[in-house]
Specification:
By secondary structure, the chain is an alpha+beta fold. The protein has 14 helices and 24 strands. It is 31% helix and 27% strand. The strands form five sheets. It has a ten-stranded antiparallel sheet with strand order 2-3-4-5-1-10-9-8-6-7. It has a five-stranded antiparallel sheet with strand order 11-19-18-17-12. The chain has a four-stranded antiparallel sheet with strand order 14-13-15-16, with no helix packed on it.
């Protein structure tokens, strides 16, 4: 039996398959349409119905015309991309497997929470199987990004009050694949790649029988109790709260465009990926199609083609019908509405809401309760408010951070390690030795508007120390050597840093 890799989506509310295809095909040239195929009499155990749609897209990349100026025999250059959508009915649920650009058909009809909901039924919060995450931050200056780990981590260690996981990439143990997904693993591999986002992808080629078995298992898992990976809850599209939130969005958008009463909780997020070209089409009108590069370009094009004095409902409609597309070699790789590119936070009736990727999310009550509990435990209860490092100087006004740090060179029990790095990580600014305790002190002259910068610096330093103490003593030896390298020879003029390094080496002898 042949096998293939599948990307699986769950359809929100089921949906009529042919209507979904008709909506996607509408307005496109016939050669871009997806066409249905005639089913064979194939019998599944769990899949009760299926429909396969495919398309063949031909594009001519721009580089062909450019390079033809160099040679005589290049000929016509064409790219051909095959795409498919396989709709599948299992119990009362509808799923879809896609390939190529088939995923574009499912925008607006897929269950955006599917992958992470299923993951919460496959692994526990303490299973150390996570290899990479992609997330977004609710607050702060960092939007989010991709994070890859040297060693596998858990949901509990990576989940934060502030972050929303878009996707989580795990090494799923083979025994879980067999037990929970119903796929018998006959190889000696301990685990397989598994990507959870709005869809699921298993890094194992599956036969149709295995696909059928897995979807039957998935149906059962979705009925089981999971846990919340994200502390944000998506509002149902029919929730009337979204109407009020959308009106607040329009007000924030017009304020943003006019530059008046600008709301810092409103921003436009262009595509993260870099494509060959980006296009913006206002209100689905081909006459308005123009290229753009930046967030400012998007704002200026909208103001150019839209009267901001229109009624709020009309502006909202235009936002939802304005499309941003991205192409590579003249092939459309991504297409989303402007509405899906807006990042907005709104307070309404003492609750916080977040518009992200075209969906409104509510900050859960448990999120606030948990935040309050952690504040009490970590700050109010456990923190010793009388704690003080007596020998550390008070920071004088107008003194630089460097001068402040090096003024401790004369204190025997404090060692200045400012700007001495281990693999671009600063372990601390001041090392304070008192009796049997060692304190690693990080000094910051302001936080640049983001406490996360300081927190990340401290976390990075702690990980280096933990690695050195628990896993690899060479880590600490390498840091020690980086201190040694700051010492100047006797015939060189001594700096504050070289004197600080010499003091440290004189006190701590490395065997």
């Amino acid at each position: 039996m042949s096998a293939s890799h599948f990307t699986i989506y769950r359809l929100y509310g089921g949906g009529n398959w042919q209507s979904i295809i008709n909506d996607f095909n509408e307005g496109k040239d016939e050669e871009e349409h997806l066409f249905i195929h005639t089913n064979r009499e194939y019998r599944f155990r769990n899949i009760s119905a299926y429909s396969l749609y495919t398309s063949v897209a031909k594009t001519s990349p721009n580089w062909g015309a450019t390079l033809s100026e160099l040679v005589n025999d290049l000929g016509e250059i064409e790219n051909i991309r095959q795409s498919f959508v396989l709709f599948l009915k299992v119990g009362d649920e509808s799923f879809a497997a896609t390939g190529g650009n088939g995923y574009q058909v499912l925008e607006g009809v897929k269950d955006y929470n599917f992958g992470l909901e299923l993951l919460s039924r496959l692994i526990s919060q303490n299973d150390d199987v996570i290899k990479r995450v992609n997330d977004r931050y609710f607050t702060g200056n960092i939007l989010g990004g991709n994070y890859q780990y040297n060693r596998r981590v858990t949901i509990n260690t990576e989940a934060d009050f502030n972050n929303f996981f878009n996707e989580i990439y795990v090494a799923l143990p083979s025994d879980k694949i067999t037990k929970k997904l119903g796929i018998n693993i006959t190889t000696k591999k301990k685990d397989y790649r598994f990507l959870a986002k709005d869809s699921i992808q298993l890094g194992k080629a599956m036969t149709l029988k295995e696909l059928d078995s897995m979807l039957g298992s998935v149906l059962g898992l979705l009925k089981a109790q999971g846990y919340d990976i994200n502390p944000f809850y998506r509002l149902n599209d029919k929730d009337h709260t979204t109407d009020e939130l959308d009106m607040r969005l329009v007000q924030g958008f017009t304020d943003y465009l006019s530059g008046e009463n600008f709301n810092v909780d409103f921003s436009i997020i262009p595509f993260y990926e870099v494509y060959d070209t980006h296009y913006m089409k206002i209100n689905d009108d081909p006459e308005t199609t123009e290229t753009y590069e930046t967030e400012n370009d998007i704002a200026e094009l909208f103001k150019k083609h839209v009267d901001l004095d229109k009624e709020a409902e009309d502006i909202l409609s235009i936002i939802k019908n304005t499309y941003l597309t991205a192409k590579v070699e003249n092939n459309e790789e991504a297409k989303q509405t402007l509405y899906e590119h807006l990042d907005v936070k709104v307070r309404l009736d003492d609750a916080s809401y977040w518009l992200m990727n075209g969906n409104w999310y509510k900050v859960g009550r448990s999120f606030i309760d948990e935040l309050n509990k952690h504040f009490v435990n970590k700050v109010t209860t456990n923190f010793d408010h009388e704690f003080k490092l007596n020998k550390v100087h008070t920071w004088p006004d107008k003194e630089s951070e460097g001068d402040y740090n090096f003024c401790h060179n004369e204190i025997a029990s404090i060692f200045v390690l400012d700007k001495i790095l281990y693999r671009n990580i600063e372990i601390c600014d001041l090392l304070y030795v008192e009796d049997d305790a060692i304190y690693f002190i990080h000094v910051k002259d302001g936080l640049s508007g983001d406490v996360r910068v300081l927190v990340n610096q401290i976390e990075d330093a702690m990980r280096v120390l933990q690695d050195g103490l628990e896993y690899d003593i060479d880590t600490l030896k390498e840091f020690y050597e980086s201190i040694v390298q700051k010492i100047k020879s006797d015939n060189e003029s001594q700096t504050q840093q070289s004197r600080a390094a010499q003091k440290f080496i004189s006190h701590f002898q490395c065997s």
